[in-house]
User: What shape does this take?
Amino acid sequence: MPLYDCMLLLKPHVRKESVMELISRVGKHVYRRNGVLTDLKSFGTVQLGYGIKKLDGRYYQGQMMQMTMMTPPSFNNELHYLNKEDRLLRWILVKHRDVKFGRDFLNEDDGDTRMLRSSMYDVDSEEDEEDSDDHEDE
Assistant: This one.
């Protein structure tokens, strides 16, 4: 299952209990589709670059939330109910590209194992050897 980020921009006056109810509703929908909610972040109140006009006024601030989840690709079509949500100003679902997990990540063999085996101390020790050779010639 691919990894998605669902960014939610809520109205600034929405109470925390109401936000949690919306998040739990989306989370339950993810679990019903055999998905997993992997991360939840709140960015607090953010200033918007322009006002977003809704039926009850124009908003220049909003509460930003990010939900990271693993769901089937058809899940995007099932979030249409968020369009009718009065508490939301905007929402977007973004798919992570080329992300590997578990055994796929561990077995990845792209030929660049040099970075995994070396450290910054290995590089410094090579330079120190070169420097010590210069001093021996003097």
